[in-house]
Amino acid sequence: MIIGLFVAARGLPLFLSFGAWRFIASSQWEPAQGLFGVFPMIAGSLLVTAGALLLAVPLGVGMAAFLAELAPAPLARALRPAVDLLAGIPSVVYGFVGLAVLVPWIRSAFGGPGFSVLAGALLLGVMVLPTIVAVAEDAIRAVPRTYREGSLALGATPWQTLTRVVLPAARPGIVAAVVLGMGRAIGETMAVLMVTGNVTALPDSLLAPARTLTANIALEMSYASGRHQEALFATGIVLFLVIMALNAAAALARRKEERA
Amino acid sequence: MDHVHAPPVPAPTFTVRNLTIAYSGNPAIKNVSLDLYPRSVTAFIGPSGCGKSTFLRALNRMNDLIPGVTTQGRILLEGEDIYAPGVDVVNLRKRVGMVFQRPNPFPMSIFDNVAYGPRIHGVTDRDRLSAIVERSLTAAALWDEVKDRLHKSALDLSGGQQQRLCIARLLAVDSEVLLMDEPASALDPISTGKIEDLIDELKNRYTILIVTHNMQQAGRVSDRTAFFLSGELIEYGLTAEVFESPRDRRTEDYITGRFG
Ligand SMILES: Nc1ncnc2c1ncn2[C@@H]1O[C@H](COP(=O)(O)OP(=O)(O)OP(=O)(O)O)[C@@H](O)[C@H]1O
Ligand SMILES: [Mg+2]
């Protein structure tokens, strides 16, 4: 809260002097020339996050369902710590692996510089996977056994039981898993910064480099001063707003679902 | 004058031999053998905890889902051992349907609950589904109460309504055997009467097993009665004989309410 006020106080003057709309909607970030357009970074953050979720949600929910429903108990017991381990790896290590393996692989497989939206999305996808698996697995396990019994007793296969009864019953928890994963993805800085290339231009393809809002702050904070520094605080405000907007959208989706 | 013949006894639907079932080593059914006949109703009576539900759940292999359950002996369904390796359990459960002791509607609409069985077995035609749903709900004496709220959640129904919904859900699947574990335990006398009428009508087509704590009900609806005590089958025979001239003292005590 106090941090929020501090950031707001430091960032708001720029909104006034440069124009809030111009700050958000223009695409030129040239601090030396007094141009502060963060639209490419907003796009970068959203693209990388959306890409990460596109990968991590189906994979994570699938893994959670496998661990909770299908895997024999010893296998599930062996796999779960492996997934948990992924969550414990510091983000700089992910970034390093991404830099050493992922970026060259993308460069040779798809062309382009390798440093790209795609690299960031893939890496973030792996990073948020443990969160999504853990929360979704809890949600699936919390589905009462009697639902499964009712379905199986009618001659449903385990797969039908999973897809038609268990997963729909676990949906609120799965939505929570996605929201948590999204929060983690959009706030992540270090690893993404290491593999996306950080160019301030609007990315025109998945293979183009991009810069996220968090990276924008982290990269320039150490030397920025004056209006430039204000612009970075203003970037922080935008980041808050984006996160709040996404959370609001998620809450809305959940409320709609509860009514249905 | 023709000789008066006793009606021929048909081949049993289920043949149970030396069945012993234990939960983590604690036997709940002890060395039980009996035959269950087609197109007739068999009532299972006995004090709470004597193993009635356990026995019922062995007939469609629902006990498989409980960790630590061991089943010994043989259960033949029309001559085929249902516990033999390679048995299609999904198909077995389609043939041998069950209403659980505790109502377990799915967290979906009333319509979708009843349509669940037909849908998983391949019915997609909207009109046919509607027809099946109406027919099943009518048979279960629930149609009039819910026909205006078919698309509301089944979880908002009362306990007795949920019980009838679960009966309707079972009737929507073309089973051959109906296992009904206290299907009228939460019902008022009028609904109970309707369910008993239904059972009377259904026995022309099905092999029906019903667990009940209501002696009058057992007397009214069943052709044969099995009395269990502490996991043992104490007495089994035609209902009229079991009720009027029980062979075992304990059966008589239980039926007349002088038990324990
Ligand atoms: N899931 C389980 N795990 C361990 N023990 C169980 C389980 N289910 C039942 N039992 C035990 O097995 C015995 C028989 O239980 P069962 O549910 O078959 O009795 P019941 O005759 O259906 O009783 P009621 O009339 O109360 O429904 C009881 O001693 C019970 O405690
Ligand atoms: Mg019982």
Verbal overview:
The complex is a heterodimer of chains A (260) and B (260). Chain A has 260 residues and is mainly α. Chain A has a single domain, classed as MetI-like (MetI-like fold). Chain A has helices spanning 2-18, 20-25, 39-70, 73-88, 91-110, 117-141, 145-153, 158-169, 171-187, 190-195, 213-220, 226-259, and strands at residues 29-30, 35-36. In chain A, strands 1-2 form a two-stranded antiparallel ribbon. In chain A, a hairpin with a 4-residue loop joins strand 1 (29-30) and strand 2 (35-36). In chain A, helix 1 crosses helix 12 (226-259). The longest helix of chain A has 34 residues, at 226-259. The mean pLDDT of chain A is 90. With 260 residues, chain B is an alpha/beta fold. Chain B has a single domain (14-255), classed as P-loop containing nucleotide triphosphate hydrolases (Rossmann fold). Chain B has helices at 52-59, 89-95, 110-120, 126-139, 143-146, 159-171, 189-202, 215-221, 239-244, 249-255; strands at residues 14-23, 26-36, 41-45, 69-77, 80-81, 96-99, 177-181, 207-211, 224-229, 232-238. A 6-stranded mixed beta sheet of chain B has the order 6-7-8-3-9-10, sandwiched between helices. In chain B, strands 2-1-4-5 form a 4-stranded antiparallel beta sheet, covered by helices on one side. In chain B, helix 3 (110-120) crosses helix 4 (126-139), helix 3 (110-120) runs parallel beside helix 6 and helix 4 packs across helix 6 (159-171). Chain B is globular. The termini of chain B are far apart. Classes of the chains: A mainly alpha (260), B alpha/beta (260). Bound molecules: adenosine-5'-triphosphate and magnesium ion.
